[in-house]
Design brief:
single chain, mainly beta, 3-stranded antiparallel β-sheet, two-stranded antiparallel sheet
């Protein structure tokens, strides 16, 4: 019996997958989208909003803690969630 060659579409590695096709995409109670990703050390995620790009890099994990590095333009405020709304950290 002759073996058939599988047809594979050529898609560049950089091509983003549509959000609706990502299996781990969920919607929380507020109606906001939630995407859960696993990252190994030195792997990153890019967040793009208009002309602003923020890169989040998984630096390392120790037990149940993860160290993340954020790279963003100077005009973008990065605030830990537990400090939001406290005096000195609010807009």
């Amino acid at each position: 019996m002759k073996r058939k060659t599988a047809a594979v579409a050529a898609v560049p590695m950089e091509a983003p997958r549509p959000v609706s096709k990502v299996k781990k995409f969920r919607v929380n109670a507020d109606g906001n989208g939630v995407l859960t990703l696993g990252r190994k050390a030195q792997e990153s995620v890019l967040i793009r909003c208009g002309d602003v790009t923020i890169e989040v890099v998984m630096v390392e994990t120790r037990g149940d803690r993860a160290r993340l590095a954020f790279s963003a333009p100077k005009h973008v405020k990065l605030i830990r969630s537990e400090l939001e709304g406290k005096p000195g950290y609010d807009d």
